[in-house]
Structure formats: C-alpha cells, structure tokens
Specification:
323 residues; alpha+beta; Structural Genomics Hypothetical 15.5 Kd Protein In mrcA-pckA Intergenic Region, Chain A; Pseudouridine synthase; 10-stranded mixed β-sheet; 8 helices; 16 strands
C-alpha cells in the first residue's frame, strides 16, 4: 500500500481576535504561522499575497479585531515542520520589573526575541512555556538577537497598546550603551538620517542610510553622548563608549547610524569592521558590544513614571576594563 499523500497547502483565512487588536501585521502573522521563516512572512506581505479585508496590507499595519486576513498556500519543508512541532523549552529570564500588566527582563545576548528566520523559538516562546497560566504574554518591542538588555513584555492587551503608543509618539526614553571603534567626535550629537531596508540575495535583511527623497526611506533619529574614551594603544585602535538614545525604533538603527558615521560598533558582524572584529575576538570580545541599558516610560496601570536600568553584562564590562 502506498503511503498517504499529504494534502496540498491551501489558502487560509484568519479572523483577528480581540486579544490581537492593535498588533502589527508582521508580528501577528509570525505568531500565527508557526514554523514559517520570518523572511517568508515578509515576502508574502510585500508581494501582496496577504490580503486584509480583501485589500493589500503592509507589515506595519495594525490589525483590528474582526479583520479577515487571507494567507496564501504555504508549504513547509519536513525539517521546518519538525521544528514547529517541537515545543520551546521553558525558561525564565532575569526580572528587572514586574507588575500585573508589565514584565521587564534582562535579555542575554545570543537569544532571539521570537522564533522565525531559522530560529525555532525565542524569548517569548520560552516565557510562555515557563508561565503556562499567564493569560497573555506579548512582546512590546524587539531587540536584535546579538543585543543584550531591557526587553518589555506585556501581560495585558491594554498595557501592550498603551506602551506601544508611547513608543510611537516618542514619549519614552530608550538608551543603549555601545562601544564603537575610533574617537567619536564630541560635536556629533544627533544623527537624523533616513534608513532603507532591503534583502540580500540569500534573503537576509539589511539596512542602509538613504536620501531624504527615497520613497522607501524611514526617518530615523539617534542621539549620541560620549561616556568614555580609550586612545589607540599596542596595535589596536581607539574606542569610544557611547550612550545612544533612539527617538525612533527602526530596524538596526543604532548599528547602521554609527557605522555610517565611520564608527562601527565593536563586534558587529553585519555592519562592523570584520578584520578588527576577529582581532577583538582574540582579545576576549565574543559578541557585539550593544546593550539596552535604560528605559523610561509611563506605567499604564499606575500612570506613574517608570525608570528601568540594567548594568553591562560581565563579558562586556570585563572587555572595557581590559582596555
């Protein structure tokens, strides 16, 4: 007897529930389409194959309760399907702050915030497994996989929307610590350059600085303050430790803005100095030196100011101590 033939993938229609009201379309789909690579999710959105109430949709559209989304047929490889069926391991992360509506954790470097794009699970999937009784756990924002530090998770839909609105209206203060190559000029305090996202031939996402007249450019504003400097010595360049505050939350914004100014982040494997990265790795820097350090916002439940901070992780602190 021949083995059963798996049914061909077909068009699906998803109706957005109340809990997902206000969520970005790309985030919603990555949660619903378990095991589908992130690059493929963005590809079907850009191509117009994902329809929202029969109309085209953009990745940053906010879905609303009752929206009907048309999802094109998606065929997953056996390997991806196997990963999708394997649950994420339960894991808690260091808690910086927690109340009934908000959870702030200290994310370690090397851990993705969510599954997708070759990663079967991330912080949010592990948290949900560790807290099976939690009614809701949703990422408020993202951090790059290589970036450590403060990450917010909402425990109520109203809190998710309220904090995301604060981010959108630039009512929050999000400051990172970044070690960059070279002597950062003291006069360079504001970088206001639009960014353009694109894909490499292999589907990997990249970002570049673009011109103000680029129709696909997104305005990006980065504020820079020098915290400490180390002059060049013993065959290595100088370094500057920067306090970097972003007023917009674009993909790879800090990494691209600093690199475009001629001062890439130490250890950045996408936009950095690759030869120098190898030299620094031998000197003990095994990762990108970017840490989400401070975050200021208004707590939606109490309407009081909330100031959060996480210190540099040991591997970054020991590297600059060695300078």
């Amino acid at each position: 007897m021949s083995p059963p033939v798996a049914p061909a993938p077909s068009v699906r229609h998803l109706t957005v529930d109340e809990e997902s009201d206000g969520q970005r379309l790309d985030n919603y789909l990555m949660r619903e389409l378990k095991g589908v690579p992130k690059t493929h999710v963005y590809r079907i959105i850009r191509s117009g194959e994902v329809r929202r109430n029969k109309g085209r949709a953009s990745a940053d559209d906010r879905v609303q309760s009752g929206d009907v989304l048309r999802i094109p047929p998606i065929r997953l490889s056996a390997q991806i399907e196997a990963k999708a069926e394997k649950p994420a391991p339960a894991r808690e992360f260091p808690v910086v702050f927690e109340d009934d509506g908000l959870l702030a954790i200290d994310k370690p470097a090397g851990v993705a915030v969510h599954g997708g794009s070759g990663v079967s699970f991330g912080v949010i999937e592990q948290l949900r497994r560790a807290r099976p009784t939690a009614r809701l756990l949703e990422l408020v924002h993202r951090l790059d996989r290589e970036t450590s530090g403060l990450l917010l998770v909402a425990k109520k839909k109203s809190v998710l929307k309220a904090v995301q609105d604060q981010f959108r209206e630039r009512e929050t203060g999000k400051t990172y610590l970044a070690l960059v190559v070279g002597d950062w000029p003291a006069r360079q305090k504001v970088i206001d350059q639009p960014l353009h996202k694109f894909l490499l031939a292999d589907g990997e996402r990249r970002v570049r600085v673009t011109s103000a007249d680029d129709p696909d450019g997104m305005r990006a504003i980065t504020l820079v303050k020098i915290a400490q400097r180390w002059p060049a010595a013993e065959g290595r360049p100088g370094f500057s430790l920067l306090e970097v505050t972003i007023k917009t939350g674009r993909t790879h914004q800090i990494r691209v803005h600093l690199a475009s100014a001629g001062h890439p982040i130490a250890g950045d494997d996408k936009y950095g100095d690759f030869d120098l990265n190898r030299q620094m790795m031998r000197g003990g820097l095994k990762r990108m030196f970017l840490h989400a350090w401070r975050l200021r916002l208004t707590n939606p439940l109490t309407q009081q100011p909330l100031a959060l901070q996480t210190e540099l992780p040991p591997e970054l602190k020991s590297y600059i101590d060695g300078l």
